[in-house]
Each structure stands twice: as structure tokens, then as C-alpha cells.
Amino acid sequence: MNFLRSRAEQLADYLRGCIARGELREPLPNIRAWSAKLGVGLHTLETALRILHREGVVRILPRKGVQLLGASGDSEQPPRARVVRWICYRRDFPDLSPVMDVLTPMADQLRDHDIGFSIEPCDATRLRLIHARGESPHEMYLLTSLPQPFERMFADFKKSALIIGLPSAGISLPYLSVDVFPAVRHAVHMLARRGFRKVTLVVKSGTSQPIAESLHRYCAETHPPMQAEVVIMPMELTDQVAAAGRFAARIRERVGIIAIYSIPASVLMTALMARGVKVPDDVEIVAVNTTLQAVRVFPLPAYYPFPLATFAKAVCKAALHYFERGRLPALRKTIPLEMVSPSA
Predict the structure, then answer these.
(1) Cα separation, 275 vs 286, whole angstroms
(2) Which of 52-80 are b and which e, b meaning 16 or more Cβ less than 10 Å from the residue's Cβ?
(3) In order of start, what are the domains of the chain with their CATH numbers?
(4) What are the tens digits of pLDDT across the range 252-306?
(5) pLDDT value of residue 267
(6) Do you find a cis peptide bond into 27, omega within 30 degrees of 0?
(7) Considering the entire predicted model, what is its pTM?
């Protein structure tokens, strides 16, 4: 969907999809009640329906409401396909290519069980539309990187929504996460043993504060205590490359760098070497929760790979439980990370 289009055109796209999937049946609600349920203005809904009327998808009948063309409340609907929908906040994923390594194994496992998989970057309008439509026995949701207000909005999707990552405080939805904290602690102590006295943690914008607080605690555990620094970088590739260049330009001392995905170690290493910094002698990078694409550089850094197979298996198991029993299991799982060392 093109979010540069008007809200009415976005809504028309959404309603068109609902009709095609058999999710809307007659009798339809009156326009005022319908707009309230969708969380949009009355004018926006009326404009969207006029678009669909011109396309021949619906018929607007004066004083009688809206009719679905070729649809009837008594018509027999074909069986609905089962689908898992990966819902993310578009601003945090301006480029989906870095997450395809994670999503592809998941989609492959689901496909083996005849379960579809969709990738849906959303803005605020789209998130509200999805929520307004409500839960469906044919759809399971994987909620990724939603701002806290939207995560709370979806908290009533108790049967079908699985949070990817740790939920906000007070959210009781099931979740599946990767436990980066022990990996960061392990990386800090490893760098300390290699003689580094300063650690810089590089994270993407929007990363939760607890990981930064934990870094300072882990550095205080070393003997002598290490100096801790947190650097935040943007997600959009062009801005990220520029930020990595500025970061590399200010390196004046020996430092260990921990890069948490989705900040690629390859971008940081390239920027450092372009500035003449000796890697890994003066600066060593450790990549945490990374994909192999993000560490395809020389020299190969130590890294903690994202647990692709384990994660995909857990999602698939949860999806099968949902489609067989009508609700997700009480899943509250964090998957540990294991280090891969090039010297091993």
C-alpha cells in the first residue's frame, strides 16, 4: 500500500481487501457506526465507499445504505486460508531487506503446513484499521516494534496476537524474544579479557533504555571497571552510513564495539577501515543478534547469530496451536544466543 495516498484511498484499499477475503458480509453497519468502529472520520469512510462504488465493488443505495455487489448474507463463503501476519511499524523498517533472513525461514516452515505468511509494514492509520476489524480465526498476528500506545491498543487481541520482542509493562499478550542481555554481558567481559578498557554499544534508534542501563552495569563488573558509551544510529541505510562515518572519525583510542542488530557490523567495520582504524587491533567489533549477511566482512568478527531455526520453529508451533485450538498458547519464551568466534 502506498501511504502517500489519501486516508480515503488507504481505507478503500483496506475495505477492498476485506471484501475479497470474505471478511465483510451484509447487512453492513450504518455509515456513522461503521466509521466509529473503524476509527476514521465519517467523510473519510464516505469518500472510500464512493471510490469502491466507482470500481463496481459496492453499490451505494440512497436511504438504504451500502450493498456488496455479488455478495449476500446467505451466500456460501469458500473456506478461508490460514495466514500469519507480520505487523511492524513502518518507520522502524524503512528497508525490509535486513529482516528477510529472519522472516524467510519462518515463512518456509509455515508454508510446509499450508499456512500463509504476509509482511505488513504499517503506519498509524493502517494499525488502527487492522485493530478496528478485530480478531479472525483465520489470522494470527506477529506484532513487531510497535510503539507503546499501539501495543496497548492491540492488548485486547488476546487470542491471536504474539509479540515479537519483550512486551511493554502491563501487556499480558504472549511473546517470543531473543535474550540479548547475557550475550552483551558475555561480550563485555570478553573484550575486557582482551585488554579493552572502553566499550561502545551501538544500537538503532528506538531501542529500549534497559539495554543501555545494563551495559553500564556489566562494565562495572570488570576489573578494572570499563568505560561504557552508547551510540544511537538511524535505520535508513543512507543516514546510517553517514552516521557510521561520523562515529569512525572520532575514534581516538582503543575501544571494543558491540553492535546490536539491526545495526550491521559490516557498515561499522567498513567505516572504521576507511578512516585507517586498525581492525581488530585498535578496535574490535562484536555483533549481537545478527544475521550472517551483516557480518560478511573481513576480518570476520566474533558474533552471536540470531537463532533462525529455533525462532522459526517456535512461531510455527504457536501458529499450529492457534489454528487448531482457536487461541495462542501462553507463550513467554526468550531464546538465548550463542557466540561464534572466528578463532574457534
Answers:
(1) 19
(2) bbeeebbeeeeeebbbbeebeeeeeeeee
(3) 7-68 (1.10.10.10), 83-178+310-336 (3.40.50.2300), 180-305 (3.40.50.2300)
(4) 999 999 999 889 999 999 999 999 999 999 999 999 999 988 899 999 999 999 9
(5) 94
(6) yes
(7) 0.76
